[in-house]
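Reviewer comment 2.1 asked that we show a complete input and output for one of the modelled complexes. We chose the dephospho coenzyme A case, as it is the one discussed in the main text.
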Amino acid sequence: MLKQLSDLQKLIDPSKPAKKLVLAVSQDIFSLNALHKAYKAGFIEPVLIGNREETYHIIDEKEYDFGDSLFVEEDDPEKCVERAVRMVHNGEADILMKGKVPTPVLLRGVLNKEWGLRSGRLLSHLAFFEVSTYHKLIAVTDVAMNIAPNLQDKIAILENSVSYLNQLGLERPKVAVLGAIEMVNESMQATTDAALLSKMNQRDQIRNCIVDGPLAFDNAVSFESAHHKNIKSEVAGDTDLLLMPDIEVGNVLYKSLVFFAHAKVASIILGASAPIVLTSRSDSEESKFYSILLAALA
Ligand code: COD
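Response of the prediction step:
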């Protein structure tokens, strides 16, 4: 069982070569701090694309040594994104990472039809939280990419996340599909979608996991709450993955966990032709480091 984000580091195979990660718009102190740590730990070989003066100002001030890593000069953020995405598209790099550039600018590059990282699947965001009040790492999707997923999108989001969790060694992760309540109410789309996803899972249309929903947040994460409401569920109180109804709920939960519960977080974009590290500017250096680790494990 994965209890802490640091447990992820034990899953890295030191006999495998370092993965090449390209940082788009590299003049970002937090990304460079995390990248340097990953480089020193030996599982990442960085490529930096960005403004030379600003990037080297940070590197020199921090006295970082990136060895023979490649630096590509490009001042315009959109061109930076294009060059970085093209490198991954062409197989010259394994992982794409967002530097000092707005999320939609990076995502539009990733979705570019000619040189982007489309794979035919839906791209989705998966975040892992280490919260002191929960007994293991809890994954949450999608808090940053898909704005208002419909049922088909939720199936694709689940498949991306479950397949990644399977890869990390969770053979049948327990998935709670969240609603405001644990009963089906046809006026609440999240609850009807949740009930359908649970039935699809029972019928083997969604595999390699145990899905239950609708569950309200309290009974998804607390045995006592579930017991109190007389909910019989294999998932309630022991959830590995929370599926969010939409980006608003997801993003507010994400920020609440970090700001109110002091949770540690790491995240990754799945479903593209290569893993993408897309952390937000407010994420800590540690969070960015673990996000790089998630991408290296993908
Ligand atoms: N997976 C695969 N293809 C996609 C996806 C996806 N998740 N989203 C869009 N596409 C494809 C569409 O099929 C279409 O072909 C093309 O991309 C454009 O689709 P639009 O018109 O919906 O795309 P945009 O450019 O308006 O928006 C795409 C974004 C990812 C930029 C948009 O969904 C978005 O802004 N998401 C929220 C990102 C964000 O602000 N996150 C911050 C929270 S921290």
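The longest strand covers residues 44-50. We note this here for comparison with the apo prediction described in Section 3.2.
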